[in-house]
Specification:
There is one protein chain. The protein is α/β, with parallel strands linked by helices. It folds into two domains: 5-101 and 283-307, ATPase, nucleotide binding domain (Nucleotidyltransferase, domain 5), CATH 3.30.420; 108-279, 2-Layer Sandwich (Nucleotidyltransferase, domain 5). The chain has helices at 41-53, 77-83, 97-106, 144-160, 168-176, 182-187, 192-208, 212-235, 251-254, 257-270, 283-289; strands at 5-10, 14-20, 28-33, 61-67, 89-96, 111-116, 120-125, 129-133, 245-249, 275-276, 304-307. A six-stranded mixed beta sheet has the order 3-2-1-4-5-11, with helices on both faces. β7 (120-125) and β8 form a beta hairpin. It is globular and about 65 Å long. It starts with a strand and ends with a strand.
């Protein structure tokens, strides 16, 4: 490597920046707040990079970013290049975080990745690419937000007498305040998505403690994620017996053994020949790979470049 490289992984809950310099010491990783997907994301990425460099400039640097909530219309690498020019950046690779998650999890192998954090998106890559879900308030099935929302809903159903008794009722009240006020309190919070997703940890803890309602929510989340993988594999051209690779990114799967085990079982049973395996790397590795993708790799078509 002859040029400095800035790899960025931008989620809704947090962002991480890895700065690698030629002949330098161990690459530095800086953790920063994530992006607001209800605001333009490219200016936020530029601001994240500026904060990470902390007043420094890296002449000739390459910048690669995987960003949650990046729509095709918002994918503007030229804008990002201009915004980061004063930082020394001369080349930019910009992609949705489904692309960087795939590369981090599977490198260049055919298969699929499910990236499940606050939101969730699944990407298959083989004969072609196929992106599944990532629809925010209209989807994100199996995500931290989805689990957290399901946990609060179960608490309110039990409170009303419409659902089974569950420890989530008391836990939701402890987290959000009096249940009769909960929908107004959360609705008024500008960070309501992150806050709701945070309740997924509470649901997971309740499941570990034996709460059957919480366990059911996690099992349903695993089934949703497996369904998305099925759609991504088929969309990417998988055929029965193809030894493709399925992996994952995000704390929803990596920190929840029950959910992960059920997810792996469902995927393996539905797709003969497919291997479910731990990811090769972390999202920052996937971001860095954007800069080195072979021209004929299907994921290349999902990356927008600017500069040289």
């Amino acid at each position: 490597m002859t040029r400095a490289r800035i790899a960025v992984d931008c989620g809704q809950t947090g962002a991480r920046v890895r700065i690698t310099e030629p002949g330098g010491d161990e690459p530095a990783i800086v953790k920063l707040p994530g992006v607001r997907t209800d605001h333009p994301v490219v200016p936020q990425v530029a601001e994240i990079v500026e904060h990470a460099l902390n007043g420094r400039s890296l002449p000739g640097a390459e910048l690669a970013a995987g960003v949650s909530g990046l729509t095709p219309g918002a994918t503007r690498p030229d804008e990002l290049l201009v915004a980061c020019a004063a930082l020394g950046v001369t080349r930019v690779a910009l992609a949705h975080d489904s692309a960087t998650s795939f590369l981090a999890a599977n490198r260049l192998e055919a298969g699929a990745v499910v990236a499940a954090g606050t939101g969730v998106v699944t990407l298959g890559s083989g004969a072609r690419t196929a992106k599944v879900d990532g629809w925010g308030m209209f989807g994100d099935a199996g995500s931290g937000y989805w689990i957290g929302r399901a946990g609060v809903e179960a608490a309110l159903r039990a409170f009303d007498g419409r659902g089974a008794a569950t420890s989530l009722t008391g836990l939701a009240e402890a987290e959000f305040g009096p249940l009769p006020e909960i929908y107004m309190v959360v609705q008024a919070d500008p960070l309501r998505v992150r806050r709701t997703a945070g309740f997924a940890k509470v649901v997971a803890s309740a499941a570990d403690a034996g709460d059957e309602v919480a366990r059911g929510i996690l099992d349903d989340a695993a089934a949703e994620l497996a369904t998305s993988v099925d759609a991504a594999l088929r969309g990417a051209g998988w055929r029965s017996g193809d030894p493709w690779r399925v992996s994952w990114m995000g704390k929803v799967i990596t920190t929840n053994p029950r959910l992960q085990a059920r997810f792996r079982d469902l995927v393996a049973r539905a797709h003969p020949g497919v291997r479910t395996a731990e990811p090769y790397g972390i999202p920052l590795d996937g971001a860095s790979l954007l800069l080195d993708l072979p021209e004929d790799h299907p994921v290349k078509a999902l990356v927008a470049y600017a500069g040289s």
